[in-house]
Design brief:
- The protein has 271 residues and is mainly α.
- The protein folds into two domains: 122 residues, no CATH class; 95 residues, E3 ubiquitin-protein ligase SopA (Pectate Lyase C-like, 3 Solenoid), CATH 2.160.20.
- The chain contains eight helices and no strands.
- It is globular, with a radius of gyration of 19 Å.
- It starts with 14 loop residues before the first helix and ends in a 20-residue tail after the last helix.
- The structure holds iron/sulfur cluster.
Length: 271
């Protein structure tokens, strides 16, 4: 089973080098892809890890490689790094990009399997999801050049309908909230959605930046790709929300009363 939780201690700081970012509300400065971040230390750790938000590096706290970093560094490159083998760095960064997308798909597939009821009505779907997990895992193995040769976009087109089917099935078996009509629009940025009953709602891909979801019931809602930057989820119930990632949780604002799955961690910046 592929490890989908990031282990930064087993990675060579790939995300802090390979990815570009632009000075914005999320980043205090810009850097190019392939350029080591000025805050990356000699041991591939972040020298400002405990101060990222006050220093304006919010974007770093809302990024997750889903374990792709250690997979590339340890399994594919056997501990070699872009520092020890600079001639390989370009390939390494490209492999990391593909691997991260494959790991993200594995995370969603695993979440879909966990959300489905364990009865005969879902037997076929669970079998197809399990087969897709095996296919996707196989794509993450081999040599770096094997991974570089994967058509990740094409694979994603095979995974997406399965995730949709799993979402429809899982949400169809749950109690439906009374306020789905309030969230039909794709752009919900800044909207007052507090106190709503959004159980099993379809919120995937919705723009919810800065929306007010305080006290809302989102149990079993599909949040795949929903933009939760600055979304206020204080007191909201996100238990069993589908496809909710730690990145989304980190990007939102919550409090001690916000409820979510035990697999997720309450961000330290929440009050
Ligand atoms: S600030 Fe820290 S976490 Fe963010 S890219 Fe730089 S080294 Fe990485």
């Amino acid at each position: 089973m592929v490890e989908l939780v990031a282990d930064c201690g087993s990675c060579a700081g790939l995300c802090c080098v390979a990815l570009p970012f632009t000075r914005s509300a999320d980043f205090a400065f810009s850097k190019e892809g392939g350029e080591p971040c000025r805050n990356l230390d000699s041991g591939f750790g972040c020298s400002v890890h405990d101060r990222l938000r006050p220093l304006g590096m919010v974007g770093c706290t809302t990024y997750d490689c889903f374990g792709a970093g250690q997979a590339v560094t340890q399994r594919l490159y056997d501990g070699q790094t872009w520092r020890s083998h600079p001639e390989q760095s370009r390939d390494m960064f490209e492999v990391f990009g593909s691997m991260r997308r494959l790991h993200e798909m594995l995370f969603y597939l695993s979440d879909a399997l966990g959300a489905l009821s364990d009865d005969t009505a879902t037997t076929d779907l669970r079998a197809r999801l399990t087969a897709m997990v095996a296919t996707t895992e196989a794509l993450t193995h081999g040599t770096p050049y094997d991974v570089l040769g994967v058509d990740v976009d094409a694979h994603r087109l095979e995974v997406a309908p399965l995730l949709r089917e799993a979402s429809d099935s899982a949400r169809g078996q749950r109690a439906r909230g009374a306020d789905h009509a309030r969230v039909r629009r794709d752009d919900l940025a800044g909207q007052d959605l507090s106190g709503l009953d959004l159980r099993a709602a379809d919120l995937r891909g919705k723009l919810m930046i800065g929306a007010d979801l305080r006290g809302s019931d989102l149990r079993g809602a599909d949040l795949l790709g929903a933009d939760l930057r600055g979304t206020d989820v204080a007191g909201a119930d996100l238990r069993d929300a589908l496809f909710l990632t730690q990145m989304q949780v980190n990007a939102a604002r919550g409090d001690a009363a916000t409820r979510f799955s035990e697999a997720l961690t309450r961000p330290s910046h929440w009050s």
